[in-house]
Amino acid sequence: MTHAKGARIRVRGLQPAQVLAGLAGIAFLVVGIIGFARTGIGNFAGHHDAGFWRFSGNPLMSLVRVVTGVVGLLLAFGSGRARTFGWLLFIFYGALFVWGLMIDGLISTNPFANAGNPMDLGRADTWLHLGVAALGLLIAVLPARRTILVPEDEVVDEPTVVEQRTDRVADADRTDTIPADEPRRRSFLRRNQTERGPEVAREERPPGLAH
After folding, report:
1. DSSP-derived 3-state class of residue 147
2. In sequence order, which ranges of the chain are alpha helices (DSSP H)?
3. Does the pTM of the predicted model rise above 0.85?
């Protein structure tokens, strides 16, 4: 009979959060590099007519996307780190979404109006950032796949029943053999006494009565 000690539930294998974090990191890195290729590094925080499809962008925004991609790739190598990257996406790009709403005038009160629009955010960028924030939340809360790990060195045998049975058999043999020897010794003594009995009687008889 065997039993396992120390069985634990562990996160094992490549997790879905890591896959999404890695794909998001690659996408941000590619988009950022394309943005640098189209706008260059001149007029770093200004407006550029050359954008990426419907999304506007300047070198500052391209730098933010490249940094996001690098961080995503680095944090995708661990399940917990991938979830941290998801929370970072949710917080940072959620804030960019709210800021884009303020810049577009969809939110009347804009406490950052004096900062202008250094990332050259447009309406399409604002809704893109909402989607990125939702993706980050998904990465952060996505459940992990878990498995039960049983270490091989902690699987031990239990020979206690066999040992108890062997001890009982040994005790039974010991009790059976000890009484069997005693009658034999007694019979041997009796036989010696009967054999020596007539000789002793002859020696004790007086010589005149032997007729």
Report:
1. strand
2. 16-39, 59-75, 79-104, 123-141, 160-204
3. no
